[in-house]
Amino acid sequence: MRAEQLLEELEKAAEKVGVQxxxxxxxxxxxxGGLCKVKGSWRLLVDRRAPAxxxxxxxxxxxxxxxxxxxxxxxxxxxxxxxxxxxxxPPAA
Length: 93
What we know:
Elements: H1 3-16, E1 20-24, E2 33-38, E3 41-47, H2 52-63, H3 75-85
Parallel strand pairs: 1-3
Antiparallel strand pairs: 2-3
Helix pairs in contact: 1-2, 2-3
C-alpha cells in the first residue's frame, strides 16, 4: 500500500472514531505532531510539511489508542496501526 493510500485510509478511520485531523505548519519543538484534546474533543495535529509516510505514522500512533474494532480498515492499514498499539497508553477520558 502506497503511503498516500495509507494516509487516506487512516484519515477516514480517525473521522469515524471522532478524531479531527488537522494539518498545520509545526515548529521543530512540536516534532511532527500528535494526539491532543482540545475543548473536550480529540484532535491529531500533523505537520503539513512532513512526507506522507511520516504523516501516516503520526496518525497511526494517535489511532493506536482507540478501539478500531468497529471501523473498516484494509488489512495493511490495520497492521500498521497495530505496530504502534503496543507502545501507546489509552487516552484519558
